[in-house]
Amino acid sequence: MRLLRLIKIAWVIQRFGLDEFILGHERFRWLRGLVRFLMFWRRLDTPRAVRLRLAMEALGPIFVKFGQVLSTRRDLLPTDIADELAKLQDQVPPFASPQVEKILSRTYPQGYRQVFREFDLKPVASASVAQVHLAVLHDGTEAAVKVLRPGIEAVIANDLALLHVAAGLVEMLWAEGKRLKPRQVVAEFERHLHDELDLMREAANCSQLRRNFEHSPLLRVPEVYWDYCSSEVMVMERMRGIPISQVDKLKAQGIDIPLLARAGVEIFFTQVFRDGFFHADMHPGNIFVGEDGRYIALDFGIMGTLTDVDKNYLAQNFIAFFRRDYKRVAQAHVEAGWVPKDTRVEDFEAAIRTVCEPIFARPLKEISFGKLLVRLFQVARRFNVEVQPQLVLLQKTLLNIEGLGRQLDPDLDLWKTAKPFLERWMNEQVGLQAFFRHLREESTRWPALLPQLPRLAHRTLAQAADPPATAQLAQLLREQKRQTRLLKWLVVLLTALLGLQLALVVL
């Protein structure tokens, strides 16, 4: 199956003439004549951008998702290609109505007409993994119904198998393969793709994000109608709005575009640092803007999560970066183990400063992210910076957010917009306010912990009373005595904290 899939990929590449993108480089100029001779039968009258989009559609979901990410990077792509790839966001060819009815009949044995008073078999949006239909429930509630593409699991499984093979070859044959951790990156990508194939999981993601942003003045998330959901069908509240990519319509609606761009940055950082749970597929096809100017999030198949360790590390790096404290950025990388321990912090700091200093105080339209990425890769290679697979989705999402910001407001100062939010968030994580919050969070464990302290103290004292047989045991005894003293103080401290917590509750 893998060999057949590889043959299909090669066939699609030559069928749509995608070799043109490689032969366009001067380094491969000598191959152009040979390719034209071998492919004399091929007629390429269709524009290159259309051929690229059609090839990605023919190759399936993983390639479509790659095209979706590229479509937001208008600073890196020619206009014709970016415009055409934007159609991959919600204009992938739909699957046939009989297949839709078959899936609905499997989901609702009583018949889908018994569930929906109205159901439009013509989809309003079609993407790589599923398509969306409009419907009306019998109580008159308008709904959007997402239906999974039939047979999509097998296609994705084959592509993932090829990615695993490619990752293994990269790691084995390329000197820097291990530093880039290609196998872990593919495994992380695979985990999220499998999650996207279960619409019950997507419904749960949607419900969680809606709860996180309940009563938010910035973001709306649809309600899930759980009684009608399954692994192949998701039914949710119908949301009305203007696609965020249609800037002219937004302006005609009276939407403040610069304000909208700044709100998008705040929504992103709120998801990442406040909740550690973020929408990781934020291309323009998944984001609308309502009449009230609030964002409307759609498609929750791919969500990212971060641990407290990841959040704190990232926040420290971002804040140090915004303050131009490059030494702190370098130190944070060393402390986290992302670069070797013997790395000279001063050299790493100088390299980061060289890359980052030229882009500060500039609007997005004046920043060449293509050049910036090349220079960042050079620094990463020089200092053996290890790729962090758990942050791959975050990096992808940050690229999407920056691309959206560029479309909305090229004059957006990303650094100035994000810095106050991150500083406020960090202030909430340290100091007296954070201490009392953690105290309240841990107080529920104290009733179970306190009764165990005498037993733990007795066990420690009993162990310390045994005569040591060797010098090593004598050292162990001294360490145990020290722990005993610490344990006594811990009892006193916990008792005091418990009293303080009780006082706070009474007050």
Automatic annotation (TrEMBL):
Swiss-Prot/TrEMBL keywords: ATP-binding, Cell inner membrane, Cell membrane, Kinase, Membrane, Nucleotide-binding, Transferase, Transmembrane, Transmembrane helix, Ubiquinone, Ubiquinone biosynthesis
Gene Ontology BP annotations: ubiquinone biosynthetic process
One example GO MF annotation: ATP binding
InterPro entries: ABC1_dom, Kinase-like_dom_sf, UbiB, UbiB_bact, UbiB_kinase
Sequence intervals crossing the membrane: 486-506
Domain ABC1 atypical kinase-like: 87-332
Database matches in Pfam families: ABC1
Pathway entry: Cofactor biosynthesis; ubiquinone biosynthesis [regulation]
Keyword set includes Membrane: yes
Keyword Transmembrane helix: yes
Highest taxon of the lineage: Bacteria
Family stated for the protein in its record: Belongs to the protein kinase superfamily. ADCK protein kinase family.
Protein name (database record): Ubiquinone biosynthesis regulatory protein kinase UbiB
Source organism: Pelomicrobium methylotrophicum
